[in-house]
Amino acid sequence: MQKKEKSFGIQMLSVQPDTKPKGCAGCNRKIKDRYLLKALDKYWHEDCLKCACCDCRLGEVGSTLYTKANLILCRRDYLRLFGVTGNCAACSKLIPAFEMVMRAKDNVYHLDCFACQLCNQSPDVT
Q1: Torsions phi, psi of 46, nearest 5?
Q2: For residues 16-45, average pLDDT
Q3: Which residues contact 25 (CB under 8 A, 6 or more apart)?
Q4: Which carries the bigger pLDDT value, residue 98 or residue 75?
Q5: For the chain, what is the radius of gyration of the CA atoms?
Q6: Which domains, and CATH codes, for the chain?
Q7: Half-sphere exposure of 59 (CA within 13 A, CB side)
């Protein structure tokens, strides 16, 4: 049976000067910084909570992290590794799971492929 993927929130907390320092789940050292992160019911230095693939600092890229197969991942890498891909309704080419798309009814399109069928004009999506 395969484990389900999960997304978890990341909280940035201010360390209170009169409290006992908490241990970091990443490096096992005491957190003496002004701020710490709380995720997965553990405490982390801001530099220690990173994506297992791209090494980005998860506290900087959003308020959510993803776990699957014992990996801690940012959204982009989670979708790249485990996301569902599909085909564009206009060009039939593969659309990576992390790519921005346009949807119309049950159809999915690359942004560059999405256009009016009558006049072939694309909407301004920027």
Answers
A1: -60, -35
A2: 92
A3: 40, 42, 43, 44, 48
A4: 75
A5: 20
A6: 7-81 (2.10.110.10), 84-125 (2.10.110.10)
A7: 16
Stated pTM of the model: 0.65
Contacts of 111 by beta carbon, 8 Å cutoff, 6+ apart: 100, 101, 102, 125
Helices (H), 1-126: 58-61, 75-82
* Beta carbons within 8 Å of 121's beta carbon, 6+ residues apart: 115
14 token code pair: 């201010």
User: Of how many residues is the chain composed?
Assistant: 126
Rounded to the nearest 5 degrees, what angle is found at the Cα of 33, between the Cα atoms of 68 and 56?
A: 35
pLDDT band at 3 (very low <50, low <70, confident <90, very high): very low
Sheet holding 42-44, edge to edge: 11-14, 35-39, 42-44
* Closest by Cα among 1, 28, 10 to 74: 10
